[in-house]
Amino acid sequence: MMPSIFDKIATLGPEMILGLGACLCLGLGLAPNIAVRRSCALVAWLTLLLAFFFIKDESSVLFAAAGMTAYIKRAIVGLGLLLLMAVLTLPSQWTGTLDEEHLHHRFDPALAFRGEFFAFFLLSLAGTMLTAGASDLVWLFLSLELASLPTYVMIAISRQRVEAYEAAVKYFFLGAFAVALFLFGFTLIYGASGATDFAAIRRSILFAGQPSALMIVGLALAVLGISFKIAAFPMHFYAPDVYQGAAAPIAAFLAFVPKTAGFVALMLLLNIPETLPPALLGLIAVQAVLTMTVGNVLGLLQTSVKRMLAYSSIAHSGYMLLGLLAPPMLIPVAGPGSALGNGYAGILFYLVAYGLATVAAFAVIALLERNGEEADHFDDMAGLAYRHPVLATILLLSVFSLMGLPPLVGFAGKVYLFGSVFSRANVYPWFVWLVVIAVINSAVSGVYYLRLAGVCFFESPKDRLELVTSPTRWLAACAAAVLVTALGIVANPLVSASRSAFMPPQPSSTAAIPPARSAAPASVPTWPTTTTPQSTSPTF
Amino acid sequence: MDMAALLNWMIFLPLIGGVLCLAVASRQAARQVALWTSIATFVLSVILAAGYYGQGYAGVQFVTQLRWIDSINVEYRTGVDGLSLPLVLLTTALSVLVVIASWDIQKAAKAYLALYLFLMTGMLGVFLALDLFLFYVFFEVSLLPMYFLIGVWGGPRKEYAAIKFFLYTLFGSICLLVVMLGIYFFTPEAAAGGASGGGQNTWDMIRLQTDPAIGALFARGGPHWGFAKLAFWLTLIAFLVKLPGVPFHTWLPDAHVEAPTPISMILAGVLLKMGGYAMMRITWPFFPDAAILFWKCAAGLGVISIVYGAFCAMAQADWKKLVAYSSVSHMGYVLLGLAVLTRAGFDGAYYQMIAHGITSAMMFFLVGVVYDRAHHRQIDRLGGLWLKWPAYSGWAAVGFFAAMGLPGLCGFVGEVMVLLGTFQAVGNPGFPTALVYTYGVLAASGVILTAGYILWMFQRVYMGPQRAEYAGYEPVKGREYFIMVTLGLAALVFGVVPYLVFVMTNPTFDGIMKIISVAVPAAQTALGG
């Protein structure tokens, strides 16, 4: 029997909690008492915490990929907790008047009495979580929009500066253009298959034998539109401006949350056809190579740390796009017992690895200021190690993880991702060259990451840096840095969790492990336990 | 005592010591911690060596095997064999001397010593890891402390030198990563004839060397011969950067010139050896057929390194840069010795690494002693040091002449064996006589060039009349004499009794040569020899 839509809605507990929390924040944000207004942040944080405990592993009937849904929900809420902590600063006093709002020019929702900020924050996270649960084009579209729309406002109100407004407007118009593109793609997919349900579309393709040209064009347009969310070529060029214009914690949010939503949408869409049509395969391969190359080459030229991190965000999207070329298969490619070979699982792992490192880096930037402005220039970071050794170490761990240096989590992520692409070299020998290009790109990216590390550690300190008072931001930066290290050394739990995300769920499965915790239960093997002999003989 | 546990303690003891260095209150305490940690590590390595002798010189001993990242078959696997043991001893012994040499470092001494001890963990890990993934991790981990040690404690262009060093090595190790992935995905095919664990992906370095089924995959005409050819080059580049060999050597002079003296000692003494060691552990035994196919290029690069490095050294006005280029020249013998695929060449290459570990560390220290007092390294502004410090200059003569390859000192053995091995290759299939002779003669001319630049330098620095500015220089300290005398005696001992090293390496090298010589008949047929 087909499950009804109500069965599915019943699984949306965490999202509903976030929605309710958002409403509460909106209401509290209007309270006449300022102390009440300021409690919005705490309400939002507790809402996230509550939602975290309501995330369950769901049955596969209701979802396109049930394991992934739970994994993504946990990742989003877990990192959302860190992101929210990175947003907050400590008010110097708990009482005040509404007029004080105009005195604060830097980003500080806790000081600026803005309940709506936290409401939007929660709604965007809820949208991303809903994306992961999509099994239908309409659902996918709506949830993607729910994930994106709040971010436009969040950028605009994050700083009272014209750059922030400019960034928001730029982001909004390009976003609208991207939406039009992927909506057009969705229409074509619907036109080609007559269905919006993923399973039905898949059946129609199976029935026809191969995807029709209309279907391929539709998917390609959808991929192109979603490229905006993940900041991939050719929809990448907004990223540096927007990241620079937005406050640093919001930039971290933009680097992680919409990217996650975008990749989840891409994985769901591209998993619809049984095998990826060659045209799409080529498109994504070319897009991946261009994205990582553009990101890394332009990253070399930056003098602003935020712009540099924006280009790094583009480059990392390029690496993750490669993972789309190795969709999960029923027969393990890489021999029994190996996790390598599933690019989608690689993407899931990499998203968390990238998110943690990025949160750590942006939180450090947000903690430093020069003359009341964010310390964003490379020169501002000079000699950071001598002034604030802990912050410099956190930044160091973050960039080294992004660079892919063992034993940090970024390295495990790169092995996982590139290894999965390599595993398909038996079918497509040219994938080896993709891996070669990707690792060369990693080496190139080392130049700008090292430059940042070098500025922090090798140059003599300047007097201009001040520290922002924000214990929660400190905590977020430290927690992210610790996780970057811990999940690199003890990579097994997260690897198993991401791998089992694309396996048929087992009864009372504990396989999906919350990424925000390093202490995790023993790994649960989820490949079929019977050894499947390798059916293909890869040739180089 | 459980030797496997001892081996692991040896790897991680410096790490613990490093953390302790950061924790203790005073600089002096940190120095004591660093000194005693390195001494303890040295003692552990000596116990390990004694234990290894007791095992009847068999293959890999004291193996620890723990599951690490199960889902991608990564294991924590360590062990020691004849290939790694002498280098481990070199590392731990040199480390003690380097800590002593670092005694006068004032700037952030605690962080310096901690980073140095972390570096020790990285170096020992590289030599003792038996899982390719673990090897890669240690290979990279050893990069980081060095990056900071050059970048923070270095000279005027430290930032440039540190980043250049890091990027070159990063580029190299990333080449290795591609090969690692390839090996991982191709090994399950070795299921049929596999000795053990058939059908499993593996990163077990010993199995990758010795399992004939895996060897067949990468053999000439095997299913992955194309990959093996690519992989040979990728791994060669990866380790050529570290060795360093022409054309990937340009980071080395920069790094050495900027690095503080003790760091130069360990960089030349041990870190470069990681490149040679990895070639002997990975490049040649994993892809023996490709090594035969490309021996001309590899040996050619070795010869170019020898000759070009020597000419560069001759042209330097900066004393330390001269010593740095001499490293390029000396490490060229390692590459040549490996490439010619003879037992003498292999032995010579290995001995050259040990000898160079002693002499290069000593040379950098000798330069450092003068630099600490003169605050410059311009050869033409020095001269007549012998009259100022006769005892120091006597030991300097030992060090520089050992590097020059004077018979009776350690540098001689390696060079001669490599040359011997090169000429022995004449007549082997695929080794045209004319080419081998050319290589041999060119490499031998390197010995003369080396004598040229070292003697010329020695004359300009130590001979002649004293300079007036020497008057204010403080005398050479007892601590400095200790380092010089230790290294000088080592140069002497290893020059006279090379057996000390070969007794450890012989059984292992027998095994490795068997792998490579198995490959020779295959080439014989293919090349019509």
What are the secondary-structure elements of chain B, in order, as H or E? HHEEHHHHHHHHHHHHHHHHHHHH
The pLDDT mean of chain B sits at 89
Strand order of the largest sheet of chain B: 1-2
Cα-to-Cα separation, first versus last residue of chain B: 52 Å
Could you tell me the strand content of chain B as a percent range? under 5%
Largest sheet of chain A: 3 strands, antiparallel
Low-confidence stretches of chain B: 192-197, 521-529
Q: In total, how many beta strands of chain A?
A: 3
Textual characterization of the structure:
The complex is a heterodimer of chains A (540) and B (529). With 540 residues, chain A is mainly α. Chain A has one domain (5-511). Helices cover 65% and strands 1% of the residues of chain A. In chain A, strands 2-1-3 form a three-stranded antiparallel β-sheet. Residues 504-540 of chain A have low confidence and may be disordered. With 529 residues, chain B is mainly alpha-helical. Chain B has a domain at 294-519. Chain B is built from 22 helices and two strands. Chain B has helices at 3-23, 27-54, 85-101, 109-128, 132-141, 143-153, 158-186, 205-210, 212-217, 225-242, 251-258, 261-286, 288-293, 295-315, 319-339, 343-374, 385-388, 390-404, 410-424, 433-462, 478-496, 499-526, and strands at residues 61-69, 74-80. Chain B has a two-stranded antiparallel sheet with strand order 1-2. In chain B, strand 1 (61-69) and strand 2 (74-80) form a beta hairpin. Chain B is globular, with a radius of gyration of 22 Å. The N and C termini of chain B lie far apart (52 Å). The model of chain B is unreliable at 192-197 and 521-529 (pLDDT under 50). Chains A and B meet through helix 18, helix 19 and helix 21 of A and helix 5, helix 6 and helix 7 of B.
Keywords:
heterodimer, A: 540 residues, mainly alpha, three-stranded antiparallel sheet, disordered C terminus, B: 529 residues, two-stranded antiparallel ribbon, 2 strands, 74% helix
